[in-house]
Structures are given as structure tokens and as C-alpha cells.
Amino acid sequence: AAPAALHAAPSVGPGKPAQPTFGAYLAGLYAQETRDYAAAASFYSRALEGDPGVPELLGRAFLMDVADGRFAEATALAPRELRLDPQDAVAQLVLAIDRLKKGDKAGALSNAERMPLGGIHRFARPLVLAWMRVAVGDLPGAEAALDELDNFNGFAPLKFFQLGLVYDFMGHPDKALADFNKTLSLSSRANWRLTDAIANFYLRHGQKKKADELYKRFVNENPGSELAESVL
């Protein structure tokens, strides 16, 4: 059912024709259900222009902007979304990324620290918080954030992989090597991102043989894949 506010006459600005708010909302719903997020974002934005005070429209427009990669639009809506729901993790993340791009590292970290601890976002929060702390040069803080992944069964490979990336980025190759090796030992199957990142590390640190072995492992575990062919 559409929000009750959409059944009222659409708002009209000076010198502007009435926006087809209800029709745009329904079109946005259909586009979202069919996973045409670009169209959904466009329709919801049009509906929101007609009725900017409808919370559901704001929420849907914001999420579809994020889903379609319209980050300028999402960034503009994020503060309004947070006024409705201060616990909106996606809005906090969008603002954190925007502030980081603008060089406001402390502001980005502040947004990351306000991400909720519950729900599905409890999985994302340690990763976001760790890298925002890396941005301000807080290595112990980044380590502590990734320790939160210990609360979830089966997340050890992800934790050690991220630690390896953090240590590599922060200039601690010995620690990075140890955690990358732990990642591989705990991973039953090497996916492409893991393979490419760790092999890249080996190559940059003069361990071509280990890089070759890792690429061969990926090829053996993924026969016939286009990625495997590109490695060969």
C-alpha cells in the first residue's frame, strides 16, 4: 500500500506543474521489484520532489540512490534520513565515505563509530570502523575493531585477510605476511579477490614462487573459469 500522504494532491511549487507523485511512486515500486534500481531511483526521486515530507519516500529514494551508485544524490539525502532514523547504518556509511573523500578523517571516523551494533550491520561495522581508524593512523584501534569479528563463527579467514591488508597498508609486511598465510590456511577454497591480493603482496616482496603457487591453486580449484584462463 502506498503511504497515505501520497493519496493527497501533490505539492506544487511556484511556476511548476504538479508532480505525478502517486504514479511515480508506483512506477518506483515496480522498478524496485524488478531490480531496475536506476529506474527506481529516478521514479522515487521524482515522487519525493512532489512530496518531500513523506518518510517512506525519503527512505526508498535514499536506498535506491545507494543501490544505483548515485552517491551525490545519496549523500544529499543521508542527513535527512538520519533525522528520521539516527541508527540508519547505510546513511552513516554514506556520510563517512563522503567525509573521507573530502579529507575529513575525524568526521568520517565519527560516522563509522555511530553505526549500529545490531542486525546485519554488526558484520559490516568492524570492517568500516577498522579502515576509518586506519585513515587516522590508529593501528591498535583498527586491530580492536577487527577483533569484533571473533564474535561470529566462520569469520576467521575474513578477519586475518583484513588484518593482512591493514598491516600491508600501514607498512608492516612481516605482520601482513603472517596474517595472509593464516588466511590461506583457514580457507578451504581460494576465491579470486583473496588470490589476487595475496599473490600481489608476494610479488611485491620478492616471493614470486609463492605467488605462482597461489595462482596455480586458484586455477586448479576453478578449472574452466575465465579468471583462471587469464592467470594462465
Write the layout of secondary structure elements.
Elements: H1 21-33, H2 37-50, H3 55-67, H4 71-84, H5 89-101, H6 105-113, H7 121-135, H8 139-147, H9 156-169, H10 173-186, H11 192-204, H12 208-221, H13 226-231
Helix pairs in contact: 1-2, 2-3, 3-4, 4-5, 5-6, 5-7, 6-7, 7-8, 8-9, 9-10, 11-12
Protein described:
With about 230 residues, the chain is an all-alpha fold. It has 13 helices and no strands. Helix 4 crosses helix 5.
The coarse overall form would be globular
Distance between the termini: 54 Å
Summarize the main sheet: none
Tell me the β content.
Answer: under 5%
Q: What string, H for helix and E for strand, traces the elements in order?
A: HHHHHHHHHHHHH
Radius of gyration from CA coordinates: 23 Å
Structural class: mainly alpha
- Helix fraction? 55-70%
* Average residue pLDDT: 89
Low-confidence stretches: 7-19
Work out the helix count: 13
Number of strands: 0
Looking at how many chains there are and whether they match, the oligomeric state comes to single chain
